Amino acid sequence: MKPTQDIVNYVREYARQKPDVAALWCLGLGIVVGWKIKPW
């Protein structure tokens, strides 16, 4: 029982099946994190 590895494997499998949805999630998370950090 390795919950972290199980989650990573699940996310990878989901990204293989639905790459467009995974890309949108990554883009959204990047925007939120970038907005919170505000590097400019």
Give a concise summary:
The model has no long low-confidence stretch (mean pLDDT 92).
Radius of gyration (Å)? 13 Å
Query: What structural class do you assign from the helix and strand content?
Result: mainly alpha
Average residue pLDDT: 92
Question: Terminal Cα separation, in Å?
Answer: 42 Å
User: What overall form do the CA principal axes indicate?
Assistant: flat
* Biggest sheet character: none
Share of residues in helices: over 70%
Task: Write a structural description.
The protein is mainly alpha-helical and 40 residues long. The chain is built from 2 helices and no strands. The termini are far apart.
Write the layout of secondary structure elements.
Elements: H1 3-17, H2 19-37
Helix pairs in contact: 1-2
Task: List the defining traits of the structure above.
40 residues, flat
